[in-house]
Amino acid sequence: MSEAIKAQPISDKIVVIGGGTGQSVILGGLRKYDTDLTAIITVADDGGSSGTLRDYLKMVPPGDIRNVMATLSDAPQDFLDLFQYRFTDEASFLANHTIGNLMIAAMAEQYKDIFEAVQYLSKIMQVKGHIYPVVNEPLTLHARFTDGTCLSGEAEITQAHKKITNIWVENAAGEAPEATAEVVNSILAADMVVLGPGSLYTSILPNISVPNIAAALRATTAKIVYISNIMTQKGETDDFSDGDHLRVINQQIGREVVDAMIMNSGVVPEGYIDWQRWNEISHQVKSDPEEVKKQGATPVLADLVELRDDGAFHNATKVAELLQMIASDNTIKNLKD
3-state DSSP call for residue 170? Predict the structure, then answer.
């Protein structure tokens, strides 16, 4: 960890962009502070319960929205347990669906607008902060691989286990999507924007591939922080260092915009990971702080490993503390200042 960083009150407005479990973990750490939180969530997921509801109802996939909503909710725990309840395989057509996914689907149909539906349900759920789907329509993720082939769909791309050269997103009409004014303005008004952690190509890049999101990240005066993954993803980021992750993000945005990068210095014990259960991960991300510096970002290193469930995860409390410190560190300058 940088010795120059000293703990001060956290930024007033923090926007966390991503998807998957990583985003919920970080938001869970940040919600303990007195700050204005906004979660911008990918809508390119097409697997599991989310994918089924997306296909049948032609709606934004609700899974990541549901998890973030549960994380930021002040509702009673009994209600949250019900909200997160997943029907078993024996439940026929309800098998593997969660109550929360079905609630979001019902409200999206009622309101005919996923953004408004999520805002209303957030009030019911007593959400501390703001939850914004990155766009108001489901997106399809496309990837081109190093062997020249292309695939569409997050689940297909992940299961291919092939090295990606570039990705892009399209709406149902095959056009580039556009984020709403609320989403763009939250980035422009933020004190800090946090990217990750999460699958680089299927959780983070689908958000910043939306053209006016990338433009907002180039224009905002907020400090932009990227939380590097602890583990690489099989077939996608094999052999990637921290610097490689950062390079891909900056290329997608179209400029070196990341001001600080949180990097794990802890070691995952050999033999700890259950490779069958966590079959998408490969090995620890290589640490390369010098390459991070070359790309204009300040490397912030700490042991962030939390070992549980036979896997390696970010310690939410430690990451939130680092974000607090970065926010108040005047030696970390916004690249656009």
Answer: strand
Q: Is the peptide bond before 197 cis (omega within 30 degrees of 0)?
A: yes
Give the total number of structural domains in the chain. 2
Which pTM value belongs to this model?
0.91
Using CB atoms within 10 A of its CB, is residue 36 exposed (0-12), middle (13-18) or buried (19+)? middle
Structure tokens at 141: 């993720």
CB-CB contact of 44 with 220 (8 Å): no
Q: How many CA atoms lie within 13 A of 271 on its CB side?
A: 0
* Concatenated DSSP letters of 257-289: ---EEEEE---PPTT-S-TTTTTTEEEEPBP-H
Contacts 24+ apart (CB under 8 A), 76-79: none
Backbone phi and psi for residue 189, each to the nearest 5 degrees, phi listed first = -95, -5
- For residues 232 and 309, membership in a common domain is answered with yes
* Total Cβ atoms within 10 A of residue 296: 15
Helical pair 63-72 and 114-124, crossing angle rounded to 10 deg: 30
Helix H or strand E segment including 225: strand 223-227
125 and 191, same domain (yes or no): no
Where would I find the beta strands (DSSP E) of the chain? 13-18, 36-41, 130-133, 140-145, 150-152, 164-170, 192-195, 223-227, 231-233, 260-264, 281-284, 298-302, 305-308, 311-314
Can you name the residues that pair with 38 across neighbouring β-strands? 15, 130
Amino acid making up residue 172: A
159 has pLDDT over 80: yes
Residue 10 CB coordination number (10 Å): 21
Give me the domain span that covers residue 193. 1-21+176-337
pLDDT band of residue 6 (cuts 50, 70, 90) is: very low
Spatial contact of 191 and 10, defined as CB atoms under 8 Å apart: no
CB 72 within 8 A of CB 131: yes
Which residue do the tokens 């750490």 mark? 29
State the CATH number of the domain containing residue 12. Answer: 3.40.50.10680
